[in-house]
Amino acid sequence: MRTKSQQIKTPEARILNLERELNWALMKIRVLEEQLRQERIRRMGPHSEKLSDLQLELLQFEPLVTVDEVEAEAGRSPFPAPAPGPDTVQDKPKAKAHPGRQKFSASLRRVTETIACPPELCQCPACGAETAVIGHDESEMLDVEPAAYFVRVTRREKRACRRCEQGTVVAAPVEPRIVEKGLASDRIVIDTVVAKYCDHLPLYRQAAMLEREAGLEISRATLDGWVMRVGELLIPVVESMRRDLLEGTYLQADETTVGVQTHDKRGSNHEAWLWQYGRPGGETVFDFRMGRDRDGPRKFLGRWEGILQSDGYKAYDEIGGPKLLHVGCWAHARRKFVDAVKLNPRDVNAVRMVASMDALFRIEAEARASGLTSEARLVLRRERSGAVALQIHNDCLMLAKRELPQSAVRKGATYLLNQWTRLNRCLEYGEVEISNNMAENSMRPVALGRKNWLHVGSEAAGAKVAAMLSVVESCRRLGLPVKQYLAEVLPGLNHKLRSEVRLITPRRWAASRSSGL
Questions:
Q1: Quick one: pLDDT band at residue 72, thresholds 50, 70, 90?
Q2: Structure pTM?
Q3: In sequence order, what are the beta bridge partners of 271?
Q4: Which of 54, 154, 168, 425 reaches 20 to 30 Å from 207, CA-CA?
Q5: Which of 383, 391, 441 is nearest to 416 (CA)?
Q6: 278-320: per-residue pLDDT in tens?
Q7: Beta strands 270-278; 284-289: pairing state
Q8: How many domains does the chain have?
Q9: 323 with 465, same domain?
Q10: What is the C-alpha to C-alpha distance for residues 292 and 270, in angstroms, rounded to an integer?
């Protein structure tokens, strides 16, 4: 039989038990809502994270509403606020400063056109005397001269001795070309490569443009032959770039998928991978592999022993030499909580974590704006970033105990705690960036390009495509004119020695131009 004290505690215990069950139910409901919204975002396409819950529900339950209509509705300006009452204090909207008329670069060629006054405006309307020119009203506008295709006829002089019957016939030497005996000049070949890997124009579109603009019917196979020839020539250059990267002590790495035609009976593309390794502010090298296992980075890095920055992908583990040091990426950790905010904008914990990580990136932005050296940036991190990172770590420990395992916030906290050692190392080395964003930015042209050229033609073409991407992206990073670089480097490249090839990598080519060599 229960005692009197037990009877008194029973209602309190029941209340506590019900509160625990209610909290658990609320958390479970939130997880299910997150999963529902995540599924809606997945179904509605890449831009659907901009839509609100009501707009997503409209798209799901109204069969006649299209994605474009709902996204257009999402982009509309909000409804005007109700008229303020007598006690409402209304802030005066700040006028946005006009950026002013854009000025054109001084490097652009100027063509001056003078417009004279017609005869009726050359006489004074008061006395009839002829007026004099006192100045000009001047304005500038951007113009273009349309490309003009033409056929270049090359006539090589031939000579022979008329007096000596044994004299041999000689001819003027042939200038080296990218595609020897090809029907296109080096400029046409380079334009084709740049259009595909810089402007993401697939070859079938370029073939259509040539037919429309020049009346030439050039097959995609011919264009592809030009492109593959350029990739083949650039492979030794990229190998020299790889050796230069491995002579350094800090690399960033990232990877992405690319489809490869295998011509098997299934009719589907094989999912291959492009691995990218680069140095911030320097060159970057793409490495094509048919798989995503660690054999890719293991073969590329060899026994390299430096600082490797990457995301949490396991393939980067157990590679390189014994002294290789792994560092993490704060942008990946932040992205987990950004996804949580997208799923539930009212999640205070997720919003707080994003704000805390934004504080870390603001400190880095200040260091970059001030032009701090690696040593000075390390001092700044120890003074300010360390305390912020420690608070983020403690908050994640708390979230890992309170949140459900399947919630987006808990997943973000778990990722950060699992990567904490590597993330904290970012703040211990002044030359290391706190994020891998530079490597990810170099992957964006690949993501844009594969939406247009769809896939790589074969496994053998993968290395050539990777070589072209490496050179194009390295020129972009270094601020080099890629067409000019290719025009100077490609002709005769197949006849150069390895020691000569190493002198014409994008970085060394830029250094030779700046030094006037």
A1: very low
A2: 0.76
A3: 259
A4: 154
A5: 391
A6: 999 899 999 999 888 888 899 999 999 999 999 888 889 889 9
A7: antiparallel
A8: 2
A9: yes
A10: 12
